Amino acid sequence: MEEIEFILDSTKESMVGSIAHLEKEFLNIRAGKASPQMLGSVFVDYYGSQTPLSQVSNVNVPDARTITIQPYEKSMLQTIEKAIMVANLGFNPMNNGENIIISVPPLTEERRRDLVKQAKAEAEDAKISIRNARKDANTDIKKLEKEGTSEDICKSAEEDIQKLTDSFIRKVEEHLVIKEAEIMKV
What we know:
Helix content: 55-70%
Structural class: alpha+beta
Number of helices: 4
Largest sheet: 4 strands, antiparallel
Order of helices and strands: HEEEEHEEHH
Number of strands: 6
Mean pLDDT: 89
Strand order of the largest sheet: 3-4-6-5
């Protein structure tokens, strides 16, 4: 019985991880409003080592269309500006001598559709990950059955795994619906 509990717990943990990964990926899909996460992939050359932008500056969002970056050291302004350009995020940073200001352009209809496709692909990856966790769990349960665990207990465990899978697939669908609405909202 302990083995079955362990399988159920580790499967649930894996599925929770899939949802967490999906949420993290969805943060990277911008929905037209400015957010500090948009610059999460920017690394700056800071005294010879590649350092995340957030560790060498303050990144703020004063309004829905603007991101401001205030470096901890003024000498980093040009370096940060260059790093944003190199990251190829489609932003055009402006340096005013104190801060770097980025105006987030509104999304075109075509770009919104591309972002929805990207969100759907991420959701599908999460579903595949959840189904793989189910497959692994069912394989482990079959091994236990061959080793002498009662058939009824194994059947019950497989049903629990399926219920878990269904509930996590539903969560992925809910996340996707919310993200799609967020992306398509003008």
